[in-house]
Every structure is written in structure tokens, then in C-alpha cells.
Amino acid sequence: MPTPSESDGVVVLHAENLTKSFGGIRAVDHLNLTLARSELRCLIGPNGAGKSTLFGLLSGLHRPDTGRILFKGEDITNLQPFQRVRKGLCQKFQTTRIYRSLTVAQNLLIAGGTHTSNRKKNEKLSWALSTLGLDSEHEVSAGKLSHSHQQWLEICLALATEPDLLLLDEPTAGMTPEETALTAQFVVNLNRQALTVLVVEHDMAFVRYIAQSVTVLHYGRIFTEGSLDEIESNQEVRRIYLGES
Amino acid sequence: MEREDKRWWQVLNGPQELGRGRVFWCLFTFAALGLLAYPFVGSVFALSNFANFCLYVPMGLGLALLWGYSGVLSFGQSAFFAIAGYVYGIISGNLLDMPGGTLLAAAGAIAASAAIAAAFGYFVFYGQVSGWIIPLLLLVLSLILETFMAQTAGYQWRVGSVLLGGYNGMTNIPSLQIGSSIFGGASIGFYYLVVSAMLITYLGLRLLVNSHYGHVVTGIRDDVERTRMLGYNVNLMQIQVFVVAAALAGLSGVLYVSWGNYINPSSMGLLPATLPVIWTAVGGRSSLLAVLLSTVTLRWLADSLAVKGGEYAFLIMGILLLVTMLFFPAGIVVTLARHWLQRKPERRDLKKNRAP
Amino acid sequence: MSLGYLVSLLYQYADSIAFLLLAALGLMIILGVVNVINLAHGELIMMGAYITTLTYHRAHLPLPLCMALSTIGVGLFGMLLERFVIRRFYDDKLGALVATWGVSLILSQGTLLVFGPSLESVPLAAWTFSYGRYSFGGYRLLLFVIAIAIVLIAWWVFYHTRLGVRTRATMQNADMARALGVNTRDIYLLTFGVGSALAGLTGALYAPTTTIVPLMGNQFVDVAFITVVVGGGANPIVGALTSAALLSLIATPLSSTLGTFSGRIGLLIAALVVIRFLPRGISGYFQDIRYRRMARGVS
After folding, report:
1. pTM summary value
2. CA of B36 to nearest chain C CA: how many angstroms apart?
3. What b/e readout covers B254-280, taking b as 16+ CB neighbours within 10 angstroms?
4. Of B35, B78, C174, C258, which one is least surrounded by beta carbons within 10 A?
């Protein structure tokens, strides 16, 4: 199993003092998060901890009540989602949202994936497609793919936007253990190609495969951060997962 | 260089349109040559009539692009058609002594339609309104425009030296003129102008829908949010497609006034607003070629009915529209084409089996 | 500014609200419940006017009875329309739009062919009264009262009857409603019938005030469409009331000073501005506020 790459310390993402409330509930509470280039970080936490809301703030679906987000040194807090994607911040959503009535090839074409102008991007995408077994399904209607293939297609669509930071929201939801392992290997390989990745996951097997560093969220705040071993041996973390807070 | 050509060909021959491959393009070329050779065998009257049918094709194709490929239903194409006709009449009427005045008028007319479309599009696409709001408001626009223009009779209703003409409309509109060639309705020059416009629009749109841009437009039709999250400025792109469709309707409008030298408010109202929708629905909005064929055919049908029973024309159009929507939702031409394309491999198999 | 002038403005305002409400309510109820736009709405209004006129002149029935026949007749026709056309387009709103436009053409052109370019008018009740140098038509005030009464009846049905509860359930979540035993098919059929009946009633009520021609529906649909767009389908009653009130506020001063055309163009521009910022109309906006207050963040 290849290991995640070492980060060179350059900050890719810096979110400071983010707060987001819905009605009376504070989903994200004065949260600070920093990601360095080529980092592969897992975000875990019990249900209701604020993980999806945080992703929504990063990709631009929600506006924060307080705080700001710096991406590659630039303040993107007021940018629309599509502008953030153009800057290199792309999210793969929890529920697959591909163009169901179009073929795999057409899906990729729309994401910009088969332009002959960018050879490096094409090679990277071809590698991704063959690793995930999608290269034989170019003419298949995306809606007819198996669930895991739809998830993988969605990751490839995100890759086709040439991101510098990839947000993965529960990428292995509904996958078998074999598919989870393949996805984990794939994500690690992506990271080795200098892609910063932030993953939200519930599946601890997946987290164990890939984790370089883990952040635990609880009640919209960062509970603790560290390596996977540190997190797993942390009694407090066990407690919040088992419901005694 | 060869690789460039090959990609260009791939785009033209691409998957987003019915009709591909060698056989198709041979037939297409044959048909195009036939069109170009028609003036040698046809009478002036037949040419003029046929040109009248074909000048509506850019408007129909514009709606096919807008509705079929981009998913936006518009009942406003005839409004843009008529706006361009009136603006052309106003500008050219005021520039009668200027050489090239009609060309300026044509450009101005199409620009006017495009500008109004852009303004309208700003409100509806940046608001991201539900799909049904657009056709509704465009119907209202058509109705208001018709009502307004119908009461502009009288000398006080003029722009420069051109009278708007009220219910009877604007007359004596000069035909397009380049140098000393006048493209009037009964001229061979006009016939070639219309056929060129038709073919160029078709080929141009075919290139567009098969390009990367065209695929993204299709993506917008299928899932707006998904396309946004892939980094595309969806609001802007929707306006762009809307403006292109309006400009094509404007082109048809300019050709129309050049052909007939008049325009009146009845080109703007609710009944004419229906026609592009009927052509597109009956042909099959997912295919440019189907809409081209249905536009010319239905224009011919309406013309024949006008002679023998004009009052039935819109009744028959209404029945045709209802029947198509109920029983041929993909369009009559497209449904027939799909049937025919599916039966072909069967025939080939039969031939193989018969071999000794 | 004299008192008479103010009263006159109020009268025009009430008249405009009545017109918008009567023209649009049927369409909005259908949009809110069945989620389709019936482009034949104008022709249904025309049918109402024609049935009233024909029964009045040919069968010599008293006018209120003719109007009742219009309402019932067009309501039944609406149910036929739902059963044979609309039903196929439940999840294809644009398709329903185009198909009903075909129906609209058939109805208007068919009426032209069968009954000719116009019918003899129905007499208008001459209940004029004057105040100072202004005169007002009592009939149009009656229409205002009827419009408000219809809105109140609709409100009562929606919120105080079992049918209303089932209808609202269908509006909010048709699948869930079906799973709880609501016959959504019948709800759609009935709603379409009621919406069409309202259109027929509108045509009947306004028949004495206008010429009876096959394309008379057009004068109702452009304001009806704008009212529907501004009001939104989320809550037909709230939407119809707020939209009619707001739009009349804009249109009344415009048309009384600059003419009917300016009034109509003002309405279209107002509609464009409203949907730019409230894309789901006024009632949709109210609903969004309510949902946002109720919603919890999901994480």
C-alpha cells in the first residue's frame, strides 16, 4: 500500500473563524482549518458534527455567518461555487450527481476531460479511468452504471476540472470492502501526484487505509487533530462517538 | 494540419445530431447541390415561394438549439423576428440614400433583437426561474408588442421619416442591397441568399452543438447545479444561447422584410408565436435537421392551406401540435428516423441469410 | 386632490384587483396543486363567456343561471381535459404547456369557425351611481365583492375542510400523500375541474362588459400570466392576493395617467424585476422564509 506523500508545508487552504447557523442551530462554530499542499486529511466525527456544512462552506454552497476562507493565498469567501471550481477547488458530493441520460464519454467531455489541448490532463484522466475500470464503459449511459462506478465517475469528473484541492464527501458510501480498498488506493495515488485531498468519511477501514492526518469534528468545532494512531487511542474521541459528550 | 482537419470533421459529424456518416453526408451534399441548381429549372414564382418557406429556417433552428439542446422553451421567437423586421424597416427607411444602408439596417435589426433578448435573459437566468416562467412571460411580451404596434397608426407614430403604420404595418421597406444587386423577393439573388443562410446556419449550429461548448449546454439542460459545480458560469451561458436564438430569429425577420417589403403587427402576436414551437415540436427538437425539414414542410403546408382554406390553417396547426405532443413527443421526423435507422441492420441480416 | 379623485382611484384599484384575481385564481390553483400551466386558460374563459351569451340569447334563460351553466360546463370540460391530455404530462411541465397551447388553438379557431367572428353582446346591468363628477359602475363593484368572496371560499376549503387537507398534502408531497391513502389522481382531476370552473365563471362574469369574440381570452391571459408569475404556485391563495394587490398598485396609476399600454408594460417589467429577486414568486418567498426558520442544518 503506497503511503501518502509528504507535504512541503505551503498552505493551500486556510479557513479561519468560520461560523454557520441554520435556524437556531450552529452547525459550524468558529472553526479554523489549515491544509498544506499535498496533504491527505480525513475529517471524521459523529453525525451532526458539522462535516457536510463545512464542505458546503468551502465549496461555496453556503455563505458563512462569520470568518473567511483563503485558497492558495486568495480570499474566496465571496466567490460563487463555479468560480471556486475554476480556481482549483472541487468537491465530489455524497449523493452522486452525474448526467444520467448522457454517456460516460459525454459526461467527461462536459467536465472538460477529453480536450486534446492538454496532454498531461488527458494522460492523468486516462490513468484514472483505467484504474477504476471505467475506460471500457465510455459509451454506457451514466445512469446505467453500477453504484460504485457512478461514484468513481463522479470523482473523475471532479478530476477533469484540474483541481488543486479535492474535497471528497463520503466517497465510499455504499461500496463493498473490495471497492473501498480500490478507492483508497486510488485516492492515495492521486495524492502522490501532488493533489491535496480532504475527505469526509464514516468508514474507519477507509480512513485507516489512507489517513495521514485526521481531524475530528464535534458540535461544529475541531475537537482534536493528529495522526490516526493518536486519534484512535484518544479516550475523549471514543466518548464522543459513543454518545457521552 | 491533418490532425486539425480530422478533429474539425469529428465535431461536424458529431453525436449530438441525427444523421451522421458517409451516406448521410453524400445525401446532404446531393440535396444542397439540388437546391443550388433549382433556379435553372424552377419558375421565378416557385423560387420566390420556396425562398419564403426557407427564410424561416434560421428561426426554427434557433429554437431547436434553445429548446432541444439547452432545455429552454421560448414562445418569443416570433417577437424577436418581428422586432428585427420593424427595426430594419426603420433604419433602412431613414438611410435610403446611403449605400450599404440596408446592410447597416440588417446589422442593427439583429442587434436590437439580441439586445432585448439579453435584457430579458438577464432577469430570468440570473434569477434562475422555473422553466415555465420563460414561455409565459415571452407570450405576454408578444401580446403587448402586438397590441402596442397595432395602435401606432397616424403620423405622430414615426421614427425619423418612417411611419410605424399601426394595424396595417410598415410598407415600402427596401430589400437588402449590396452594391447594385437588390435582393428582392422575386430575385434569384434572394433565393441564393436564403439557401446560403439556411445551409450556413445548419452547418454552423451543427458545429456548435458538437463542440465542447455545445456539450456543456446539453449538460446545463440535464442538470444545472452539476454543471455549475464543474466550474461553468451557467447563468451567462444560458443568456448566450438565448441571444443566439434571438439573433437567428432576427435574421429570419430581416430576410422576411427583404422578401416582402412589409411587416405588420400580426407577425408579433400569439398566433405567430406558436409557429416556431410547432415546427420544432413536430420535427423533433433534439435534431437540427428534423427541425429544418419540418419548418420548410409546415410552411409549405400553411401556404397551401392559405389558398384553399385559410381559416382552417391554425386549427390544423393546433391539432397537429396536440397530436404530436400526445403521440410523438420526440417529434414526428425524429421518431420516423429512429424507426428507419433501427430497421436497417435487420435488412442487412436478411440479405446475409439469403446468400447461398 | 379631491376626495372624488381618491374615491375614483380606489374604485379603479378595486376593479383591477378583481380583474386580476378572477383572471388568475383558477390558473394559480391548478399550478399550485397539479403543478402544470394550462395555456388554454384564456380559451376556458372565452368558453365561459360564450356559454353565457349563447344560453342567454338562444335559450332565453335568466343571466345568473347562464353564468352558473358556464361555470359548471367549463368545469366539466376542464375535467375532460385533465383526463385525456394533462394526465400524460404530470412530470413534464413544458410538455403540458405546449400541449395545452395546442388545445387553446383548437378551441379559439374552432369557435371562430363554428360561431363566426363575434356574438351579440350580453346586456350590462346599468347600476351606475355618481359621486361629484365621477361615475362608477355598480356591476364592477359587484365583481370585486364576488372576487373576494371566491378567495374567502377557497381559503375556507383549503384550510377548514378535509378535502383541503388532502389537497395541501398532495401539494407538499404527492408520494407521501399517496402512501397515506390520499387519492391524488382524483385530487388532480377535481382541482383541474375547479380551476377551469373558475375560468368559466370569470368569462361569464365579464361577458356583459366586453365584446364576445373568439380571441377574447387574450385580454385576460396576459394579466393572468403575470399575476401567476409574481404570485408563485407555492400557495395559490396568498400568492393570488398579494400579487393582485401589488400589481394593481403598480398598474392603476400607470394606466390612469399614461394609458393601458403603459400599464401592461409596467406589469411585465415589474414581473421581471420580482422574479429576478424572488424567483419563486411572493408565495414561494414566504414559503422559503418559513422553511428556513424551521430547517436545521444537516451535518
Report:
1. 0.90
2. 36
3. bbbbbbbbbbbbebbbbbbbbbbbbbb
4. C258
> Left (φ > 0), alpha (ψ -120 to 50) or beta: where does B169 sit?
left
Contact list in A for residue B227 (CB cut-off 8 A) is 110
Q: Look at C277 and B127 and tell me if their CB atoms are within 8 Å.
A: yes
Yes or no, beta carbons of A23 and C294 under 8 Å apart: yes
Contact C101 B321 (CB under 8 A): yes
pLDDT for position C299: 37
Contacts of C288 in chain B (CB under 8 A): none
A155 touches chain B (CB under 8 A): no
**pLDDT tens, position by position, C21-33:** 999 999 999 999 9
pLDDT tens figures, A21-51? 887 788 898 999 999 998 899 998 887 778 8
Do C299 and A50 form a contact (C-beta atoms < 8 A)?
yes
Nearest Cα to B73, choosing from B86, B60, B63? B63
Residues of chain C positioned with their CB less than 8 A from the CB of B126: 276
Instruction: Report the percent of chain A where pLDDT is more than 70.
Output: 93
Count of other CB atoms within 10 angstroms of residue C95: 18
The pLDDT value given to residue B7: 65
**B133-169 per-position pLDDT tens digit:** 999 999 999 999 998 888 888 778 888 888 888 888 8
Q: Do C299 and A50 touch (CB under 8 A)?
A: yes
B17 vs chain C: nearest CA distance in angstroms? 21
Q: List chain A domain ranges.
A: 11-88+163-241, 98-154
Contact residues for C170 (Cβ-Cβ < 8 A; gap 6+): C33, C177, C182, C184, C187, C188
Specify the residue for cell string 426603420.
Answer: B90
B8 in C contact zone (CB under 8 Å): no
- d(C-alpha A160, C-alpha A114), whole Å: 9
Residue of B nearest to A97 (CA): B226
B148 and C85 in contact by Cβ < 8 A? no
Selection from B38-52, B171-185, B236-250, C109-123 with the highest mean pLDDT: B236-250
Q: Starting from the edge strand earliest in sequence, which strands make up the sheet with A89-92, in order?
A: A89-92, A165-169, A196-200, A40-44, A213-218, A221-226
Q: Tell me, which fold does domain C3-294 have in CATH?
A: ABC transporter involved in vitamin B12 uptake, BtuC (1.10.3470)
**Binning pLDDT at 50, 70 and 90, where does residue B350 land?**
very low
Instruction: Say how many C-beta atoms besides its own lie within 10 A of residue A242's C-beta.
Output: 9
Q: What is the mean pLDDT of residues B292-314?
A: 87
A117 near C CB under 8 A = no
Backbone angles phi, psi at A109, to 5 degrees: -60, -40
Confidence at residue A109, expressed as pLDDT on a 0 to 100 scale: 86
CATH class, domain A11-88+163-241, is alpha beta
Distance CA C221, CA C216 (A): 9
C292 versus A83: the higher-pLDDT residue is: A83
What kind and span of H or E run contains A198? strand A196-200
Separation in Å, CA of C287 to nearest CA in chain B: 16
Contact between C299 and A21 using a beta-carbon 8 Å cutoff: no
**ipTM topping 0.85:** yes
Q: Find the closest chain C residue to B120 by CA distance.
A: C272
